[in-house]
């Protein structure tokens, strides 16, 4: 999902059309307040990833101030921000990129280059979402399951794991089954691939 935040209706409409021409779902907002309200009511994260196109200059709240708010709320972690401006300068662009923006485009911009960058941002969003999901699954493991996991990843067999941890082989098998279930994998190879 592409979130377009711009106070100019013609820009919102043209960017929405442009995104849809590339099969990217898009929603437009006329102000930062409207976008923040939508984020507060938003349900689950879009499985296709999310990206925010943010105009730098808007009347009620600047894009820079909105970006700071979004960043403080953790919204930009999984939703990369691409700034759009008709009044940008190099120092501003550098500052925004250093502060965590995904990219910075000056109006008028090349439509294809912008949408290519949006697609890259959506891919980055997906990758971050997947990393967060894996991290959450790891955090769901018990301390003993983490110990068994580490030994599985070291390539050790159940009997060796049981000996090293001073538990029965049956207990190792139970922990292994719980680990595979919680991590949503079927084999140690899948587990290793997931955690590489």
Automatic annotation (TrEMBL):
<dbReference type="InterPro" id="IPR016032">
    <property type="entry name" value="Sig_transdc_resp-reg_C-effctor"/>
</dbReference>
<dbReference type="InterPro" id="IPR011006">
    <property type="entry name" value="CheY-like_superfamily"/>
</dbReference>
<keyword id="KW-0805">Transcription regulation</keyword>
<keyword id="KW-0238">DNA-binding</keyword>
<feature type="domain" description="Response regulatory">
    <location>
        <begin position="1"/>
        <end position="122"/>
    </location>
</feature>
<keyword id="KW-0804">Transcription</keyword>
<keyword id="KW-0597">Phosphoprotein</keyword>
<dbReference type="Pfam" id="PF00196">
    <property type="entry name" value="GerE"/>
</dbReference>
<dbReference type="InterPro" id="IPR036388">
    <property type="entry name" value="WH-like_DNA-bd_sf"/>
</dbReference>
<protein>
    <submittedName>
        <fullName>Response regulator</fullName>
    </submittedName>
</protein>
<dbReference type="Pfam" id="PF00072">
    <property type="entry name" value="Response_reg"/>
</dbReference>
<dbReference type="InterPro" id="IPR000792">
    <property type="entry name" value="Tscrpt_reg_LuxR_C"/>
</dbReference>
<feature type="modified residue" description="4-aspartylphosphate">
    <location>
        <position position="55"/>
    </location>
</feature>
<dbReference type="InterPro" id="IPR001789">
    <property type="entry name" value="Sig_transdc_resp-reg_receiver"/>
</dbReference>
<feature type="domain" description="HTH luxR-type">
    <location>
        <begin position="134"/>
        <end position="196"/>
    </location>
</feature>
């Amino acid at each position: 999902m592409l979130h377009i935040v711009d106070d100019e209706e013609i820009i919102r409409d043209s960017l929405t059309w442009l995104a849809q021409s590339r099969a990217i779902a898009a929603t437009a907002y006329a102000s930062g307040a409207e976008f923040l309200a939508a984020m507060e009511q938003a349900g689950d994260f879009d499985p296709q990833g999310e990206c925010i196109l943010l105009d730098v200059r808007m009347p009620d709240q600047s894009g820079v101030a909105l970006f700071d708010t979004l960043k403080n709320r953790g919204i930009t972690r999984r939703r990369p921000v691409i700034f759009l401006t008709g009044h940008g300068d190099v120092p501003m662009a550098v500052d925004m990129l250093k502060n965590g923006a995904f990219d910075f485009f000056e109006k008028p911009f090349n439509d294809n280059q912008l949408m290519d960058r949006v697609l890259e941002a959506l891919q980055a969003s997906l990758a971050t979402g997947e990393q967060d999901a894996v991290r959450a699954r790891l955090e769901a493991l018990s301390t003993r399951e983490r110990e068994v996991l580490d030994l599985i990843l070291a390539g050790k067999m159940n009997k060796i794991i049981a000996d090293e941890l001073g538990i029965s082989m049956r207990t190792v098998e139970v922990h292994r089954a719980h680990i595979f279930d919680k991590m949503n994998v079927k084999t140690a190879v899948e587990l290793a691939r997931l955690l590489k």
